[in-house]
Specification:
Distance between the termini: 39 Å
CATH class: Mainly Beta
Structural class: alpha+beta
Shape: globular
Strand content: 35-45%
Number of strands: 8
Helix content: 10-25%
Low-confidence stretches: 1-19
Mean pLDDT: 86
Largest sheet: 8 strands, antiparallel, barrel
Strand order of the largest sheet: 1-2-3-6-5-4-7-8
Number of domains: 1
Order of helices and strands: HEEEEEEHEE
Number of helices: 2
Length: about 140
């Protein structure tokens, strides 16, 4: 009986830890040329980590090597990895050629589904690349 109680308590504790830690997603941020005109202004690298707890997605990351200061960072919602989609939240970003990004958003059911299919991505814009300089799809 005691062994069963210990095993049951351990299972509950494990489930609680899993629920508290959430699902973790990672992105490698890299330049994605939009056209030949903007290609010379696209440079840099970065990483982002996102943790989903319930419906709240919290994103943190770093970047470096932009050719001009970052102006905005956003989360975008697409149907799959590699497919562009509309932005749905602005993130806080360092207004420099390197720094950090962070923010959180409550996801609706469609965004949750797209996140789990690799369709949510981070995009950083800069002064010389207002259409986006670094992109990265969040994947598990």
């Amino acid at each position: 009986m005691r062994l069963a109680l210990v095993l049951a308590a351990g299972s509950v504790f494990g489930l609680l830890l899993t629920a508290q830690s959430g699902e973790t997603y990672k992105a490698r941020l890299s330049p994605v040329p939009a056209d030949a005109k903007t290609r010379p202004d696209l440079a840099g690298l970065g990483t982002a980590t996102a943790v989903l707890a319930g419906t709240k997605l919290t994103v943190t990351g770093t970047f470096d090597g932009l050719k001009s200061p970052a102006t905005v960072a956003r989360l975008h919602n697409a149907v799959a990895a590699g497919v562009r989609g509309p932005s749905f939240i602005d993130l806080t970003v360092s207004k420099s050629t390197g720094g950090t990004l962070s923010g959180s958003a409550e996801l609706n059911p469609q965004q949750l589904q797209n996140l789990r299919k690799g369709g949510i991505y981070v995009q950083i814009h800069s002064e010389k690349a207002p259409d986006g300089v670094l992109w990265g799809w969040l994947i598990r």
